[in-house]
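Sanity check

After download, print the first record. It should look like this:
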Amino acid sequence: MPAFDRYAATYLTRRYVVALGLVACLALASQLVIQHALARQQPDGLVVNLAGRQRMLSQRLCKAVLLTERDPAAAAERDATLDAWLLAHERLIRGHEPGMGDENPPDVAAMLTAVDPLVQAMAEAVRRGDTAGLLAREREFLERMDAIVARYGSHAADRVSRLARLEWIIFFVTVTVLALEAWLVFAPAVRRLREALRERERLAEHELELQVAKAGEKAAADIGCDLHDGLGQQLTGLALQAKALARRLESHPEAESAQHLSAGADLAIRQARGLARRLAPVELAKGGLPDALRQLCTDTAIAFSLACSAQVEEGLTLADPDAEQHVFRIAQEAVTNAVRHAKAKRIWVTLARDGSLVRLVVRDDGHGMAADAPEGFGLRSLRLRARRIGAQLSIDGTPGHGTDVVVSWTHGAG
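Expected structure tokens:
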């Protein structure tokens, strides 16, 4: 996987993990809060039922007392009803029986405490058989129990209202978090993905350009070798024959023609060798990359009538021939740009070690390059070649002060 693909995948994965983690934590927290609130409301029904049962038991107790006056056998039912009524009252006062939730609210507890003397007086009236006293207190008891049940209902309604508000708050927080994630997480992730795709397309385009250039260089190298080994040898043979003919015709009227033929053959040899060097510079140079760079400067100086010098460290070669070709082509492209576009009069080419680095510098005194100058195929080719050999490329140009093209890589890389 290319480096930018790995970076994009890691970037997106981290963003999505953070986003999903926040949503999951928020959902879990909201669920815990709601469940806790529901658990606190669960005993409300039991308490209200118990309070309503007290009202029912008080009415049944009065009926049992009246029945006992006519039928003494109903005393057992009266006593059982009284015990159940008093037990329910005690449970209501305590308020924290199992299944009844937390203790009673202060106002409810105060109301239950206030009704306790009335309950005890009614119980005592039952034990004494004071039916009139029991009936006289029943209405007040029922009214107070209705008030207690209403107060319980009010507290339950308040809790339901608070739970509804809590749910709305959680909803708005969730929506806000999702909006923030869309803004801070997903939108940057989409931009990063688009950048990665564009970078991939650029690299694919550059890779295709490089493959085309490499195929052209191979074809040019083959032609250069054919020129050097084939045509060059043929021309050398013809030149030797022409020189021999010129010597034999020294006193002959055609001697001058023979000399012109010999000179023409020498010129053809030099032109063929020059073409061969330009087509396959590194392979045909005895000293490899250093000699190829020197020859480049020599040919440039002669062809364009300018000063082009090379300062190259002796014996400096690269282990990979393809890397040498890329470095030479970078230098060749930089020199060509300096001549054609910058109108330079002086060009300096330097190749030397700097610690663990090897640095190629092509400097000119031309027009320089503006920082916002469009990047054409030549500059893209320089960057792509540098990337192919793991080198760092920097182009420092100032209008009116020339341009420095610097390529540096670790010695032994490539």
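If your output differs, re-run the checksum step. Summary of this record's structure: The domain at 285-414 is CATH 3.30.565.10 (Heat Shock Protein 90).
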